[in-house]
Amino acid sequence: MSKEPTSQNQDRPFAPALRRLREAGLRPTRQRLALARLLFDGGCDRHVTAEALHEEAIANGVKVSLATVYNTLHQFTDVGLLREVVVESGRAYFDTNVTDHHHFFYEEDGRLEDIPGDRITLGNLPDAPRGNAVSRVDVVIRLKSG
Amino acid sequence: MSKEPTSQNQDRPFAPALRRLREAGLRPTRQRLALARLLFDGGCDRHVTAEALHEEAIANGVKVSLATVYNTLHQFTDVGLLREVVVESGRAYFDTNVTDHHHFFYEEDGRLEDIPGDRITLGNLPDAPRGNAVSRVDVVIRLKSG
DNA sequence: GTGATTGCAAATCTTTTGCACTAAA
DNA sequence: TTTAGTGCAAAAGATTTGCAATCAC
User: Fold this and answer.
1) Cβ-based contacts under 8 A for chains A and B
2) Spatial contact of A36 and A15, defined as CB atoms under 8 Å apart
3) Can you list the residues of chain B whose pLDDT is less than 70?
4) Residue A7 has pLDDT above 60, yes or no
């Protein structure tokens, strides 16, 4: 029974993240796999900064440099696994929810929270100016406590 | 006739900016006055970065440091003369239009353009979560050329 | 005068980059 | 192998801060 773990055994918990990377056309390196598991295997949508994800990785015993975290977050964004959300100058957030939706932004502590896309009705949107196409419409509801 | 310019003569073109600063409770120093004139006396709404405003000031013969431009932009924002618009991480834009409105963002060249607040209908907005108040709702329509 | 404001340079913070090394296919 | 990916340290921006000099009142 309890012999050396086969690669199959080892791979099982990695399978979803592995599949995700392969489908996105990204070579599943140890770092990318580990970050993908942290980001996507929790079952809930996440909003992370590079710094925060790096700390989380280190805390989980994953050896990865901050530079690689930055690179990986951008690669994930490029292939549509993540979406970048801009709410504060000087700090980039990455959102695991890539469907059409919007955000609450808690100014107090810099936290982000999803608002389903169909919870807000955007009516009467102006046309894109000549020669342009709408790439995305972002709605941010900024909150102050009180 | 053409004698030494009186302080009254000299002040005339500065009057609007001067009044604006006084009403905002900011001491009208040479730098603040010069920046206020550049920002508000053009008659049209502007979206500037600190760097761009600094260059503009220098080009106009105004002696002011970049640090002071940053400080001044934030002071103006604090007293409601400007509004900060966040559309790109790592670059802050300041908007002379402080009325309720939204923005087109040209991803190609980083340009911003106002959309009057009443041009967009925001329906069915979710309530602010318990213990919070909406401080502002920002809509950004991101444009790509084509 | 006196306290607010400025300039400058240095510090900070976030993010990107160059390059030798390592690992996936 | 062969090429993509990684770590590290350094570079690059953007913004802020400390402090002496300067200015508005």
Assistant:
1) 124
2) no
3) 1-12
4) no
- Whether the pLDDT of residue A40 is over 60: the answer is yes
Residue type, A126: P
Mark yes or no for CB contact A123/B123 under 8 Å.
yes
A104-131 residue pLDDT tens: 999 988 999 999 999 999 988 999 999 9
Q: Considering all nucleic acid strands, name the nucleotide whose C1' atom is nearest to the C-alpha of residue A21.
A: C24
User: What gap in Å lies between CA B117 and CA B104, rounded to an integer?
Assistant: 12
Q: Å from A25 (CA) to C21 (C1')?
A: 24
Distance B27 CA to C4 C1' (A): 8
Residues 6+ apart with CB under 8 A from A24: A76, A79, A80, A81
Identify the band that residue A11 occupies on the pLDDT scale cut at 50, 70 and 90. low
CATH classification number, A12-143, choose in 1.10.150.20, 3.30.420.10, 3.50.70.10, 1.10.10.10 = 1.10.10.10
Q: At what angle do helices B15-24 and B30-40 cross, to 10 degrees?
A: 110
Cα–Cα distance, A55 to A12 (Å, whole number):
25
Q: Which nucleotides of D are covered by protein (CB under 7 A)?
A: 4-10, 14-18, 23-25
A128–chain B nearest CA distance, Å: 7
* Six-digit token string for A72: 């990986």
Residue boundaries of the structural domains of chain B: 12-143
Does the pLDDT value for residue A78 go beyond 90? Answer: yes
- Say how far apart CA B52 and CA B43 lie, in whole Å: 18
Tell me if residue A13 falls in helix, strand or coil. Answer: helix
CA of A67 to C1' of D8 (A): 9
Q: B106: nearest CA in chain A?
A: A132
